[in-house]
Specification:
The strands form four sheets. Strands 3-2-1-4-16 form a five-stranded parallel β-sheet. It has a five-stranded parallel β-sheet with strand order 6-14-7-8-9. The chain is 33% helix and 17% strand. With 462 residues, the chain is of the alpha/beta class.
Protein backbone atom coordinates (compact mmCIF):
# COMPACT_ATOMS: atom_id res chain seq x y z
CA UNK A 1 0.00 0.00 0.00
CA UNK A 2 2.64 2.52 1.14
CA UNK A 3 4.75 2.29 -2.00
CA UNK A 4 1.75 2.88 -4.29
CA UNK A 5 1.03 6.31 -2.80
CA UNK A 6 3.15 8.83 -4.72
CA UNK A 7 5.19 11.28 -2.67
CA UNK A 8 3.04 14.28 -1.80
CA UNK A 9 4.51 17.38 -3.50
CA UNK A 10 5.03 20.49 -1.38
CA UNK A 11 3.36 23.73 -2.44
CA UNK A 12 5.75 26.54 -3.39
CA UNK A 13 5.71 30.20 -4.38
CA UNK A 14 5.62 30.77 -8.14
CA UNK A 15 9.26 31.17 -9.37
CA UNK A 16 8.51 34.34 -11.36
CA UNK A 17 6.99 35.95 -8.27
CA UNK A 18 9.46 34.75 -5.62
CA UNK A 19 12.49 35.87 -7.67
CA UNK A 20 11.49 39.42 -6.64
CA UNK A 21 10.75 38.90 -2.93
CA UNK A 22 12.35 37.43 0.20
CA UNK A 23 9.29 35.50 1.40
CA UNK A 24 9.65 31.79 2.05
CA UNK A 25 9.76 29.66 -1.11
CA UNK A 26 8.16 26.48 0.32
CA UNK A 27 4.75 26.68 1.97
CA UNK A 28 4.99 23.27 3.69
CA UNK A 29 2.30 20.64 4.20
CA UNK A 30 -1.16 21.08 5.66
CA UNK A 31 -2.66 18.37 7.92
CA UNK A 32 -4.24 16.38 5.09
CA UNK A 33 -1.03 16.42 3.00
CA UNK A 34 1.16 15.54 5.99
CA UNK A 35 -1.09 12.63 7.01
CA UNK A 36 -1.07 11.25 3.45
CA UNK A 37 2.71 11.55 3.16
CA UNK A 38 3.26 10.04 6.64
CA UNK A 39 1.14 7.01 5.66
CA UNK A 40 3.83 6.07 3.09
CA UNK A 41 6.32 5.14 5.85
CA UNK A 42 7.05 1.38 5.97
CA UNK A 43 8.04 1.43 9.70
CA UNK A 44 11.11 -0.75 9.13
CA UNK A 45 12.33 -2.93 12.00
CA UNK A 46 15.85 -1.53 11.62
CA UNK A 47 15.19 2.00 10.36
CA UNK A 48 18.15 3.14 8.26
CA UNK A 49 16.79 6.70 8.34
CA UNK A 50 17.47 6.95 12.10
CA UNK A 51 21.03 5.65 11.69
CA UNK A 52 21.61 8.27 8.96
CA UNK A 53 20.36 11.19 11.10
CA UNK A 54 23.31 12.91 12.84
CA UNK A 55 21.19 13.59 15.94
CA UNK A 56 19.34 10.24 15.85
CA UNK A 57 15.73 11.48 15.65
CA UNK A 58 13.33 8.52 16.10
CA UNK A 59 11.82 9.08 12.66
CA UNK A 60 9.35 6.15 12.31
CA UNK A 61 8.02 6.90 15.82
CA UNK A 62 7.25 10.55 15.12
CA UNK A 63 5.78 9.68 11.70
CA UNK A 64 3.47 7.10 13.32
CA UNK A 65 2.16 9.84 15.64
CA UNK A 66 1.45 12.06 12.59
CA UNK A 67 -0.55 9.21 10.97
CA UNK A 68 -2.50 8.85 14.23
CA UNK A 69 -3.23 12.60 14.23
CA UNK A 70 -1.26 13.16 17.46
CA UNK A 71 0.94 16.08 16.42
CA UNK A 72 1.80 16.91 20.01
CA UNK A 73 3.03 13.35 20.46
CA UNK A 74 5.09 13.61 17.27
CA UNK A 75 6.68 16.83 18.54
CA UNK A 76 7.55 15.15 21.86
CA UNK A 77 9.33 12.32 20.01
CA UNK A 78 11.37 14.78 17.91
CA UNK A 79 12.19 16.91 20.98
CA UNK A 80 13.99 13.97 22.60
CA UNK A 81 16.81 14.39 20.07
CA UNK A 82 16.45 17.73 18.25
CA UNK A 83 16.18 21.22 19.67
CA UNK A 84 15.69 22.89 16.25
CA UNK A 85 13.02 20.91 14.33
CA UNK A 86 11.62 23.84 12.33
CA UNK A 87 15.14 24.75 11.19
CA UNK A 88 16.20 21.18 10.37
CA UNK A 89 12.97 20.54 8.48
CA UNK A 90 13.87 23.47 6.23
CA UNK A 91 17.64 23.44 5.72
CA UNK A 92 18.95 19.91 6.36
CA UNK A 93 20.27 17.96 3.35
CA UNK A 94 17.72 15.19 3.92
CA UNK A 95 18.37 13.68 0.49
CA UNK A 96 21.88 12.64 1.57
CA UNK A 97 20.95 11.69 5.14
CA UNK A 98 17.61 10.36 6.43
CA UNK A 99 15.70 10.39 3.12
CA UNK A 100 18.76 9.14 1.26
CA UNK A 101 18.66 6.01 3.44
CA UNK A 102 14.88 5.44 3.26
CA UNK A 103 14.12 1.88 2.04
CA UNK A 104 11.16 3.19 0.06
CA UNK A 105 13.61 5.28 -1.95
CA UNK A 106 15.23 2.16 -3.44
CA UNK A 107 12.33 1.59 -5.86
CA UNK A 108 10.15 4.64 -5.30
CA UNK A 109 10.52 8.13 -3.84
CA UNK A 110 11.59 8.26 -0.18
CA UNK A 111 9.28 9.55 2.54
CA UNK A 112 9.47 13.38 2.81
CA UNK A 113 10.90 13.21 6.34
CA UNK A 114 12.13 16.83 6.37
CA UNK A 115 8.80 18.27 5.24
CA UNK A 116 7.00 16.18 7.91
CA UNK A 117 9.40 17.40 10.63
CA UNK A 118 8.76 20.99 9.53
CA UNK A 119 4.98 20.38 9.58
CA UNK A 120 5.11 19.08 13.16
CA UNK A 121 7.28 21.97 14.37
CA UNK A 122 5.19 24.65 12.63
CA UNK A 123 1.90 23.16 13.84
CA UNK A 124 3.07 23.09 17.44
CA UNK A 125 4.39 26.65 17.18
CA UNK A 126 1.04 27.92 15.90
CA UNK A 127 -0.70 26.40 18.93
CA UNK A 128 1.92 27.15 21.60
CA UNK A 129 1.73 29.82 24.26
CA UNK A 130 5.06 31.43 25.25
CA UNK A 131 6.62 29.62 28.21
CA UNK A 132 8.24 31.33 31.16
CA UNK A 133 11.97 30.62 30.96
CA UNK A 134 13.06 27.94 33.43
CA UNK A 135 15.82 28.69 35.90
CA UNK A 136 18.84 26.52 36.58
CA UNK A 137 18.63 24.73 39.95
CA UNK A 138 20.23 26.54 42.91
CA UNK A 139 23.95 25.80 43.00
CA UNK A 140 23.98 24.24 39.52
CA UNK A 141 27.40 23.94 37.91
CA UNK A 142 28.16 26.54 35.25
CA UNK A 143 28.96 25.78 31.61
CA UNK A 144 29.83 28.41 28.98
CA UNK A 145 28.89 27.94 25.33
CA UNK A 146 30.75 30.08 22.79
CA UNK A 147 28.58 30.74 19.74
CA UNK A 148 24.80 30.53 19.33
CA UNK A 149 24.76 28.65 16.04
CA UNK A 150 23.37 25.11 15.65
CA UNK A 151 26.24 23.43 17.56
CA UNK A 152 26.00 25.85 20.49
CA UNK A 153 22.20 25.75 20.68
CA UNK A 154 22.12 21.93 20.61
CA UNK A 155 24.85 21.62 23.26
CA UNK A 156 23.17 24.25 25.48
CA UNK A 157 19.76 22.55 25.21
CA UNK A 158 21.05 19.14 26.25
CA UNK A 159 23.07 20.55 29.17
CA UNK A 160 20.15 22.66 30.43
CA UNK A 161 17.94 19.56 30.38
CA UNK A 162 20.56 17.84 32.56
CA UNK A 163 20.32 20.64 35.14
CA UNK A 164 23.40 22.74 34.36
CA UNK A 165 23.54 26.55 34.56
CA UNK A 166 24.25 27.35 30.89
CA UNK A 167 25.24 30.70 29.36
CA UNK A 168 25.76 31.21 25.62
CA UNK A 169 28.15 33.99 24.55
CA UNK A 170 27.45 35.32 21.04
CA UNK A 171 29.71 37.76 19.15
CA UNK A 172 26.94 39.30 17.03
CA UNK A 173 23.94 41.29 18.21
CA UNK A 174 21.43 38.52 17.49
CA UNK A 175 21.51 34.83 18.41
CA UNK A 176 21.45 32.09 15.79
CA UNK A 177 24.93 32.11 14.29
CA UNK A 178 24.99 30.98 10.66
CA UNK A 179 21.21 30.43 10.85
CA UNK A 180 20.81 34.18 11.43
CA UNK A 181 23.52 35.68 9.22
CA UNK A 182 24.12 32.98 6.57
CA UNK A 183 20.89 31.34 5.43
CA UNK A 184 18.58 33.67 3.46
CA UNK A 185 15.14 34.72 4.61
CA UNK A 186 13.45 32.84 1.73
CA UNK A 187 14.82 29.55 3.08
CA UNK A 188 14.62 30.30 6.81
CA UNK A 189 12.43 33.18 8.04
CA UNK A 190 14.25 34.85 10.93
CA UNK A 191 11.65 36.80 12.92
CA UNK A 192 9.23 33.88 13.01
CA UNK A 193 10.87 30.46 12.65
CA UNK A 194 14.43 31.12 13.91
CA UNK A 195 13.39 33.47 16.71
CA UNK A 196 10.91 30.83 17.90
CA UNK A 197 13.59 28.12 17.98
CA UNK A 198 16.00 30.35 19.93
CA UNK A 199 13.21 31.23 22.39
CA UNK A 200 12.51 27.52 22.96
CA UNK A 201 16.16 27.04 23.94
CA UNK A 202 15.95 30.02 26.31
CA UNK A 203 12.77 28.51 27.80
CA UNK A 204 14.93 25.63 29.06
CA UNK A 205 16.79 28.15 31.24
CA UNK A 206 19.70 28.89 28.86
CA UNK A 207 20.96 32.49 29.13
CA UNK A 208 22.25 34.22 25.98
CA UNK A 209 24.65 37.18 26.12
CA UNK A 210 25.17 38.92 22.76
CA UNK A 211 27.94 41.27 21.59
CA UNK A 212 30.58 39.23 23.44
CA UNK A 213 33.64 38.44 21.33
CA UNK A 214 35.53 35.71 23.14
CA UNK A 215 39.22 36.42 22.62
CA UNK A 216 38.55 40.19 22.75
CA UNK A 217 35.75 41.11 25.19
CA UNK A 218 36.64 38.14 27.41
CA UNK A 219 38.88 35.06 27.15
CA UNK A 220 38.31 31.39 27.95
CA UNK A 221 40.75 31.81 30.85
CA UNK A 222 38.61 34.69 32.25
CA UNK A 223 35.47 32.56 32.02
CA UNK A 224 37.04 29.57 33.78
CA UNK A 225 39.32 31.27 36.31
CA UNK A 226 37.30 34.35 37.25
CA UNK A 227 33.67 33.71 36.34
CA UNK A 228 33.30 30.19 37.68
CA UNK A 229 32.56 28.24 34.50
CA UNK A 230 33.73 24.66 34.99
CA UNK A 231 33.55 23.70 31.31
CA UNK A 232 33.45 25.56 28.00
CA UNK A 233 32.08 24.44 24.63
CA UNK A 234 33.47 26.21 21.56
CA UNK A 235 30.88 26.29 18.78
CA UNK A 236 32.01 29.43 17.00
CA UNK A 237 31.59 28.07 13.48
CA UNK A 238 33.66 28.87 10.41
CA UNK A 239 33.19 32.49 9.44
CA UNK A 240 36.50 33.26 7.74
CA UNK A 241 35.91 33.45 3.96
CA UNK A 242 38.27 31.98 1.38
CA UNK A 243 39.36 33.72 -1.82
CA UNK A 244 41.02 32.40 -4.98
CA UNK A 245 44.22 34.46 -4.89
CA UNK A 246 43.80 35.60 -8.51
CA UNK A 247 44.62 39.08 -9.88
CA UNK A 248 41.90 41.68 -9.39
CA UNK A 249 40.34 40.29 -6.19
CA UNK A 250 41.00 43.62 -4.46
CA UNK A 251 38.83 45.59 -6.93
CA UNK A 252 35.67 47.37 -5.76
CA UNK A 253 32.74 45.06 -6.34
CA UNK A 254 34.48 41.82 -5.26
CA UNK A 255 33.35 40.39 -1.93
CA UNK A 256 32.70 37.13 -0.13
CA UNK A 257 29.34 35.38 0.04
CA UNK A 258 29.65 35.78 3.82
CA UNK A 259 29.63 39.57 3.50
CA UNK A 260 26.72 39.63 1.04
CA UNK A 261 24.60 37.27 3.14
CA UNK A 262 25.44 38.92 6.47
CA UNK A 263 24.56 42.39 5.20
CA UNK A 264 21.35 41.08 3.75
CA UNK A 265 20.21 38.76 6.58
CA UNK A 266 21.51 40.09 9.88
CA UNK A 267 21.63 43.74 8.80
CA UNK A 268 18.33 43.53 6.84
CA UNK A 269 19.63 45.15 3.63
CA UNK A 270 16.69 43.66 1.72
CA UNK A 271 14.24 45.84 3.65
CA UNK A 272 13.59 49.38 2.45
CA UNK A 273 13.32 50.71 6.01
CA UNK A 274 16.96 49.68 6.73
CA UNK A 275 19.85 51.81 5.45
CA UNK A 276 22.39 48.96 5.23
CA UNK A 277 24.60 49.58 2.17
CA UNK A 278 24.67 46.66 -0.26
CA UNK A 279 25.94 46.74 -3.84
CA UNK A 280 25.19 43.95 -6.31
CA UNK A 281 25.03 46.06 -9.48
CA UNK A 282 23.02 45.22 -12.58
CA UNK A 283 24.90 41.93 -13.07
CA UNK A 284 26.59 39.60 -10.60
CA UNK A 285 28.78 36.51 -10.93
CA UNK A 286 28.91 34.07 -8.00
CA UNK A 287 31.93 31.74 -7.98
CA UNK A 288 31.30 28.32 -6.37
CA UNK A 289 28.86 25.44 -6.43
CA UNK A 290 27.79 24.74 -2.84
CA UNK A 291 24.67 25.72 -0.93
CA UNK A 292 26.26 29.06 0.03
CA UNK A 293 26.80 29.83 -3.67
CA UNK A 294 23.12 29.10 -4.34
CA UNK A 295 22.08 31.29 -1.40
CA UNK A 296 24.32 34.15 -2.56
CA UNK A 297 23.17 33.93 -6.18
CA UNK A 298 19.48 33.79 -5.28
CA UNK A 299 19.97 36.73 -2.90
CA UNK A 300 21.75 38.84 -5.55
CA UNK A 301 18.94 38.02 -8.00
CA UNK A 302 16.33 39.25 -5.54
CA UNK A 303 18.35 42.43 -5.00
CA UNK A 304 18.00 43.18 -8.70
CA UNK A 305 21.09 41.71 -10.42
CA UNK A 306 21.13 39.41 -13.45
CA UNK A 307 22.99 36.58 -11.77
CA UNK A 308 25.28 33.79 -12.99
CA UNK A 309 26.95 30.95 -11.11
CA UNK A 310 30.48 30.07 -12.26
CA UNK A 311 31.54 26.50 -11.43
CA UNK A 312 34.59 24.61 -12.61
CA UNK A 313 33.00 21.16 -12.81
CA UNK A 314 29.69 19.92 -14.30
CA UNK A 315 26.23 19.92 -12.74
CA UNK A 316 26.71 16.28 -11.68
CA UNK A 317 29.51 17.37 -9.32
CA UNK A 318 27.67 20.37 -7.83
CA UNK A 319 27.89 19.96 -4.03
CA UNK A 320 24.73 22.04 -3.43
CA UNK A 321 21.43 20.36 -2.59
CA UNK A 322 19.44 19.31 -5.66
CA UNK A 323 16.44 21.27 -4.36
CA UNK A 324 18.53 24.46 -4.14
CA UNK A 325 19.89 24.02 -7.68
CA UNK A 326 16.37 23.32 -8.97
CA UNK A 327 15.01 26.46 -7.26
CA UNK A 328 17.88 28.60 -8.58
CA UNK A 329 17.27 27.41 -12.16
CA UNK A 330 13.52 27.98 -11.85
CA UNK A 331 14.21 31.56 -10.76
CA UNK A 332 16.33 32.25 -13.84
CA UNK A 333 19.91 32.02 -12.57
CA UNK A 334 22.38 31.21 -15.36
CA UNK A 335 24.77 28.30 -14.64
CA UNK A 336 28.15 28.57 -16.38
CA UNK A 337 29.65 25.11 -15.95
CA UNK A 338 33.22 23.89 -16.64
CA UNK A 339 34.32 27.50 -16.21
CA UNK A 340 36.95 28.89 -13.83
CA UNK A 341 37.96 32.54 -13.17
CA UNK A 342 41.62 33.37 -13.77
CA UNK A 343 41.46 37.17 -13.33
CA UNK A 344 38.99 39.90 -12.38
CA UNK A 345 39.18 42.89 -14.69
CA UNK A 346 38.54 46.47 -13.56
CA UNK A 347 37.78 49.85 -15.11
CA UNK A 348 39.82 53.05 -14.74
CA UNK A 349 38.03 53.85 -11.45
CA UNK A 350 38.92 50.54 -9.80
CA UNK A 351 35.51 48.87 -10.16
CA UNK A 352 34.87 45.40 -11.58
CA UNK A 353 33.94 45.34 -15.26
CA UNK A 354 34.38 41.63 -16.16
CA UNK A 355 35.64 38.22 -15.06
CA UNK A 356 38.26 36.59 -17.26
CA UNK A 357 37.62 32.82 -17.26
CA UNK A 358 39.05 29.69 -18.81
CA UNK A 359 37.09 26.66 -19.98
CA UNK A 360 37.67 23.41 -18.11
CA UNK A 361 37.33 19.70 -18.81
CA UNK A 362 37.16 16.84 -16.32
CA UNK A 363 40.28 14.71 -15.91
CA UNK A 364 41.03 11.84 -13.54
CA UNK A 365 39.28 11.52 -10.14
CA UNK A 366 40.95 13.37 -7.23
CA UNK A 367 41.37 12.11 -3.65
CA UNK A 368 37.66 12.72 -2.92
CA UNK A 369 36.62 10.61 -5.91
CA UNK A 370 35.43 13.60 -7.94
CA UNK A 371 37.01 14.07 -11.36
CA UNK A 372 39.54 16.90 -11.28
CA UNK A 373 38.89 19.93 -13.49
CA UNK A 374 41.68 20.62 -15.99
CA UNK A 375 42.17 23.86 -17.94
CA UNK A 376 41.73 23.83 -21.73
CA UNK A 377 44.69 25.87 -23.05
CA UNK A 378 43.80 28.94 -25.09
CA UNK A 379 40.11 28.90 -24.11
CA UNK A 380 40.08 32.16 -22.11
CA UNK A 381 37.06 34.45 -22.45
CA UNK A 382 35.45 37.34 -20.56
CA UNK A 383 32.09 37.60 -18.78
CA UNK A 384 31.04 41.26 -18.31
CA UNK A 385 29.78 41.86 -14.75
CA UNK A 386 29.41 44.59 -12.11
CA UNK A 387 30.13 42.43 -9.05
CA UNK A 388 31.83 39.15 -8.19
CA UNK A 389 30.89 37.12 -5.10
CA UNK A 390 33.31 34.42 -3.91
CA UNK A 391 31.47 31.44 -2.40
CA UNK A 392 34.44 29.09 -2.02
CA UNK A 393 33.94 27.88 1.53
CA UNK A 394 35.03 29.23 4.89
CA UNK A 395 37.44 28.28 7.66
CA UNK A 396 37.35 28.80 11.44
CA UNK A 397 38.40 32.18 12.85
CA UNK A 398 41.79 31.73 14.62
CA UNK A 399 40.99 34.24 17.41
CA UNK A 400 40.01 31.73 20.13
CA UNK A 401 42.96 29.42 19.48
CA UNK A 402 45.38 32.39 19.53
CA UNK A 403 44.04 33.64 22.88
CA UNK A 404 43.75 30.29 24.69
CA UNK A 405 46.86 28.52 26.00
CA UNK A 406 46.95 24.78 25.38
CA UNK A 407 44.22 24.80 22.72
CA UNK A 408 45.59 23.24 19.54
CA UNK A 409 44.37 23.73 15.96
CA UNK A 410 44.91 21.80 12.75
CA UNK A 411 46.81 23.17 9.75
CA UNK A 412 43.46 24.32 8.33
CA UNK A 413 42.52 26.21 11.48
CA UNK A 414 40.01 23.75 12.96
CA UNK A 415 40.24 23.13 16.70
CA UNK A 416 41.73 19.70 17.47
CA UNK A 417 38.99 17.62 19.17
CA UNK A 418 38.19 13.92 19.53
CA UNK A 419 34.90 12.31 18.44
CA UNK A 420 33.25 13.55 21.66
CA UNK A 421 34.48 17.13 21.32
CA UNK A 422 37.27 16.91 23.91
CA UNK A 423 40.09 19.34 23.02
CA UNK A 424 43.75 19.52 24.07
CA UNK A 425 42.84 21.93 26.89
CA UNK A 426 41.22 20.43 29.99
CA UNK A 427 37.60 21.44 30.46
CA UNK A 428 37.32 22.86 26.94
CA UNK A 429 35.24 21.05 24.34
CA UNK A 430 34.50 22.00 20.73
CA UNK A 431 32.31 20.92 17.85
CA UNK A 432 30.68 21.82 14.56
CA UNK A 433 32.31 23.99 11.92
CA UNK A 434 34.89 25.31 14.43
CA UNK A 435 36.37 21.80 14.33
CA UNK A 436 35.52 20.47 10.86
CA UNK A 437 35.38 23.64 8.77
CA UNK A 438 32.16 24.54 6.97
CA UNK A 439 29.67 21.64 7.01
CA UNK A 440 25.91 21.26 7.62
CA UNK A 441 23.55 22.49 10.33
CA UNK A 442 22.57 18.98 11.41
CA UNK A 443 26.19 17.75 11.65
CA UNK A 444 26.97 20.74 13.87
CA UNK A 445 23.96 19.88 16.05
CA UNK A 446 25.13 16.28 16.30
CA UNK A 447 28.57 17.48 17.41
CA UNK A 448 26.96 19.79 19.98
CA UNK A 449 24.93 16.92 21.43
CA UNK A 450 27.96 14.60 21.65
CA UNK A 451 29.94 17.33 23.40
CA UNK A 452 27.08 17.92 25.88
CA UNK A 453 27.20 14.24 26.87
CA UNK A 454 31.00 14.42 27.21
CA UNK A 455 30.82 17.63 29.29
CA UNK A 456 28.27 15.97 31.60
CA UNK A 457 30.53 12.93 32.01
CA UNK A 458 33.58 15.16 32.63
CA UNK A 459 31.85 17.27 35.29
CA UNK A 460 30.30 14.26 37.02
CA UNK A 461 33.74 12.64 37.30
CA UNK A 462 35.39 15.77 38.77
Amino acid sequence: MAERIPRVPVREQDPQVRAHNFEEVCYGYNLEEATREASRCLHCKNPRCVAACPVGVKIPEFIAQVVAGDIKGAAAVIAQDSSLPAVCGRVCPQESQCEGSCILGVKFEPVAIGKLERFVADTMAAEATPAEPAKAPEGARKVAILGSGPAGLACASDLAKKGYDVTIFEALHKAGGVLEYGIPEFRLPKDTVLKREVESVKALGVKIETDVIVGRTVTIDNLMDEEGFEAVFVGTGAGLPKFMGIPGENLNGVFSANELLTRNNLMKAFREDYMTPIHVGGSCCVVGGGNVAMDAARTALRLGADTSIIYRRTEVELPARKEEVHHAKEEGIDFKMLTNPVEILGDEKGWVRAVKCIRMELGEPDASGRRSPVEIPGSEFEIPTDTVVMALGTSPNPLIVKTTDGLEATRRGGIVADENGKTTREGVFAGGDAVTGAATVILAMGAGRKAAAAIDEYLQSK
